[in-house]
Amino acid sequence: MEQLRPFAIRTKRVVGRAVEIEAIKKALADPRKRTHILYFTGPGGIGKTRLLEESERLAPQTLLRSGIIDLYHSESHSIAGLQAAIAQGLDPEKKYFQAYWKARQAFEERRAAGVAAKSLQQEEQEAHRCFLTDYNRLASQYRILLRFDTTELIQHESDPVQQVCKIEMEGVEMQAWLLKTLPLLVNTVVLLAGRPPAPLHVELESQCDKIENLIFQAFDLQGLTLEESLKYFEMLAPLEPQIAEIPDDMRQRTWRYTKGHPIRLSLVIDLVLNGQQIAGLFPPSGGASKSLADQEEIDQKLIGELMRLSSPVRGMLHYLSLARKGLDAGLLHYLVPEWSGAQCQENLENMRRFTFVKTRPGTGQFFLHDELYELFDRFVLSERQEYTATRQKIARYYEEQQHLSQDLERQRALKVSRLYYELQVSPWEAFWRCYVPWDEQAVRAFDQALDMRLRDELLRFLKDNREDPWVTRQLPRDVVDRDAAVRWVRRYLSRGEHQEAAKVGRRILESDQDAFQSHDPLYRGALQTAYAEALSYTGDEEESAVLKILDRAIQALEKWEPEGEQDPRTWWQRRVLGRAYNDRGYLHRQAGRNSAAIREYRKAIGYYRQADIQDEMADTLTNMGFVYARWGRITEAEVALQDAIGIRKRLGQEFALGLSYNSLGLMYAYNDFPLRGERWCAKALGIFTRLEQPRGIGLAQIALGFALRKRAEQWKVGTYTKDEVKEFFTQAIEHLKKAETIFAGEVDEPLRLWETYNEMGSTYCDWGWLLLRQGQNAEAQKKYDLATEYLQKSVDVAEKHGLDLQAADSYDDLSQVYADRQSPEAETEAWVNKVREKIPEEYELTTEGFSQKSDPAEEWWMMLGKLHLGYGVRAMKKAVEQEVSPEEKDRFLDKSVEHYAYAAAYLQKYSPSAPELDRTLKSIRWRLKTVSPERLERLRRQMADFAENHQVNLDRLLNLLDITLGITPLNSKDL
Q1: Are both 42 and 152 inside the same structural domain?
Q2: Stretch 647-651: mean pLDDT, rounded?
Q3: Domain annotation covers residue 552
Q4: Are residues 896 and 876 in the same domain?
Q5: Same domain as 280, residue 185
Q6: Final residue of a structural domain among 258, 280, 308
């Protein structure tokens, strides 16, 4: 023991395995360059890895080979991780995989920026395509050897989850990717090794049977024969005198008790080389059998002797057995602070002399052989509680490293490693405090690499401990299966596959399996929220039905009671509640129920703040800010949007930041600050363009078109010259045509296409009105023709997709076009009547005032206000511009003032702060001041009578008329 060997003793060549080695040789030297897949299975310690290593020596110099991709390590438990390992191993200088690395880097940068998942999914598929293209281009020049070890660690969802969800794993799960990809590789030899039952074996063989020029072979490795074991001793004897001194009967007894497993043979030899007498390792020779009991006794004896080695080695074995994600000098120093960093490194290096100690190249990490981990679990670590403190300390080390690291890939690795140790300490706490929040964030960020690695780590832990009652009591498999099922709905949602998300959600809800019939409120609430969210996008259910599903989810979640203040499930409850209320807000907003939307958004924000959930809170703040902007509540809108912007800057969510900038710009444009609005929308467009994000670009183009139209409108108050206004209209149309290209093509979003066409129609209408006022009648009519064309397109989109509010808006805009261009009154009225048909009767103002309606769709009041303003303008034109009798003139004026009163009442009901109300009041006052003072006094009295008879407050409009008439109010507060 005092004389330390720098490296473990081992034979230069694999002992035995003649059949397997011959198969590898033939595959490598195949003159037809066919692809061969060789699968080696066998129990732990049987020599599978050594066989993969031997292929390196057998391979010709001209052959390219990957390193051994060991699936023990979590980095390879995702498609991206596997591709990166293969590409890096074959082409470390990145000469041949340039397209792949470029596509992968672009994907990661845009994913980190928060680009929409639907776009990211296409980009990730492009990275997959580039990988195969680059690989096969390389394989056309060189024969390639790929090697995968520890394939038994490939995980898949439990049977109940797969049966119920019927999920499509291709492009998500590494097992599905390997099954599809390996048979497609050309001029390649693939070696796979794993313990039985190998999860890829049967399916891979079935896949390969369908492909010509592809050869699949499977080998079941057994222990070495007596002759092979004796040869093993003979090959090592020249290297160490102590081995040569082992008598033949002890060599045979060693073979008998180790069953010829190379790792157990090497363990015996390691003990001999470290001073152990071989005779003391086995029972007396007389009549010894090979029963399981005898084997168990020998195993225990071997591990016992290992743990009686000198102090530093014993301590190192203890820490190696616990630090299964790798032990390096940094972690060792954290565990044993009295050892300096240099001592830690030296002690680790000294462990290289043991055959069962492995190192991972390029990492400085040391591991035990898998079989040794199992022996330690059986004979040393069987009492978990004795080692909890060490595992907790290792978990804290990884937690500290998490906080220090800024590198994305290292962050992923640290989270997965920490999850392993947290599960060992407390499965229940680890699941709810680590796995659930980390994987939820990974799913939302479309970080499939982290998502799949976390999932595999959890599934591996459950599989390894399926017979451990301590684990199964803390974390029943049903709980994990239910979470996994809901998580698949969320994965489809994050990828923009709303129809598939709805299908999976429906299957789970309708499943008759006991696990999915649970009334656990956290599970039911999360499932119903995800399902409702999917339905809100697909339109497969009535809005009222979706709201009811969300109601049930909220009721379940709000009834759930945590078990103490520190219950980690509280985070999940609040996140799902916040999401459910946000989704309700979305539905209310889409239906024009603004006050209801604000109420739901505020509740969502409350839950997000309680749990410090920043990403989704920023989404809700942006949504709420947009509604406040529509209402003209500038202060509230600015506060919400600036809060969202601050969060998104801190989180580095560039795409989402662009959305908030765009909403801020729209807020300013809506509220008559179009220049400020244009600047923020242009900033958003810059972000979306740099990220090459079509949907974002389209949204910003619509917003810029709107802001420029609002700037052009300022010709009415003399802010801009004729040429400047023409340029604004021209630029607005250019932006909107770019939006049309996006939403009529690559981005299928009917609401945005309607918005594009409607805004183009409104822009041409405003342009036509300007030209008409300038006496350019022929040019004005051309613009009106274009306005009619695009507004009709917006009508077609709205009617096709059941967008009632939007259809009514377009009808109203068309009535404006026909009225402005002085078309026959019947044409104008035809569109006006279509608007009236869409508006529910209960929104009409009567002599009893407005009906008391819970959660009203305020947008209908906006529509009615615009409608009556149009009525009033047309009646006023008849009174002022037509040759009529004094009686007719009075009748038209009376009618116009009644409609003006209605318009003011409806818009005030919509929102007292709405910019449309201010514009309408100014418009009414401007028109009425042209009549004589006597008539205006009569009209003012009529308006006051209307307010009293309909139980509405029209003081703001009356005050404007009082200013015109010079009337002093009775109450000084109205001055």
Answers
A1: yes
A2: 93
A3: yes
A4: yes
A5: no
A6: 308
Kindly state whether residue 453 falls inside one of the protein's structural domains.
yes
d(CA 739, CA 705): 9
- 188 and 286 together in one domain: no
Based on the domain organization, do 359 and 437 belong to the same domain?
Answer: no
364-415 tens-digit pLDDT: 899 999 888 988 988 888 777 778 999 999 999 999 999 998 888 899 999 9
DSSP line for 337-373: TTS-HHHHHHHHHHGGGSTTEEEETTTTEEEE-HHHH
Assess whether 424 and 459 both reside in one domain.
Answer: yes
Distances (CA, A) of 504 to 330, 511, 533, 715: 45, 10, 13, 55
For residue 172 the two structure tokens come to 């998500």
CB distance 754 to 698 below 8 Å: no
What pLDDT, in 10s, does the model give residues 316-347?
A: 999 999 999 999 999 999 999 999 999 999 99
Domain end residue (candidates: 308, 333, 349): 308
Would you give the distance in Å from CA 454 to the centre of its chain?
14
Whether residue 975 is predicted with pLDDT greater than 60 in this model: the reply is: no
**Which tens digit of pLDDT belongs to each residue from 72-81?**
888 888 899 9
Helix (H, G, I), strand (E, B) or coil at 895: helix
Strand arrangement, sheet containing 144-149: 64-70, 144-149, 188-194, 35-41, 214-220
Q: Which of 212-221, 258-267, 322-331 has the highest mean pLDDT?
A: 322-331
Q: What is the CATH number of the domain that holds 138?
A: 3.40.50.300
Same domain? 352 vs 469: no
Is the CB of residue 452 less than 8 Å from the CB of residue 496?
no
Given a contact cutoff of 8 angstroms between Cβ atoms, the answer to whether 870 and 832 are in contact is: yes
738-791 confidence digits (pLDDT tens): 999 999 988 888 999 999 999 999 999 999 999 998 999 999 999 999 999 999
Burial class (CB in 10 A: 0-12, 13-18, 19+), 810: buried
Residue 650 lies in a domain: no
Q: Write down the pLDDT at residue 861.
A: 94
Between 541-545, 552-556, 575-579, the lowest mean confidence (pLDDT) is in: 541-545
User: Is the per-residue pLDDT at 279 higher than 80?
Assistant: no
CB within 8 Å of 23: residues ≥ 6 apart:
38, 217, 219
In a 3-state reduction of DSSP, which class is residue 808? helix
- Structural domain including 254 reads 226-308
Q: Are 96 and 134 in contact (CB under 8 A)?
A: yes
H or E segment and range at residue 65: strand 64-70
Q: Name residues whose C-beta falls within 8 Å of residue 512's C-beta, 6 or more positions apart in sequence.
A: none
If phi > 0 it is left, if psi is from -120 to 50 it is alpha, else beta; for residue 186 that is: beta
Task: Quote the mean pLDDT of the chain.
Answer: 89
How many percent of the chain have pLDDT more than 70? 97
**Is the C-alpha dihedral spanning 602, 606, 607, 612 positive or negative?**
positive
| Ranges 209-223, 818-832, 926-940: which has the least confidence | 926-940
Same domain, 161 and 65: yes
**CB neighbours of 354 closer than 8 A, spacing ≥ 6?**
8, 270
Please name the amino acid found at residue 796: D
Interatomic CA distance for residues 432 and 649, integer angstroms: 28
Buried b (16+ CB within 10 A) or exposed e, 241-259: ebbeebeeebbebbbbbbb
* pLDDT exceeds cutoff 80 at 289: no
Task: Fill in the DSSP letter of residue 435.
Answer: I
Q: Where are the beta strands (DSSP E) in 98-234?
A: 144-149, 188-194, 214-220
Residue 218 pairs in a beta bridge with 39
* Residue 603 C-alpha from the chain's centroid: 23
- Number of domains comprising the chain: 6
Residue 652 buriedness (CB in 10 A; 0-12 / 13-18 / 19+)? exposed
User: Is 308 strand, coil or helix?
Assistant: coil
What's the mean pLDDT in 845-861?
90
Instruction: Give the Cα separation of 130 and 99 in Å (integer).
Output: 6
271 found inside a domain: yes
Terminal Cα distance for the chain, rounded: 101
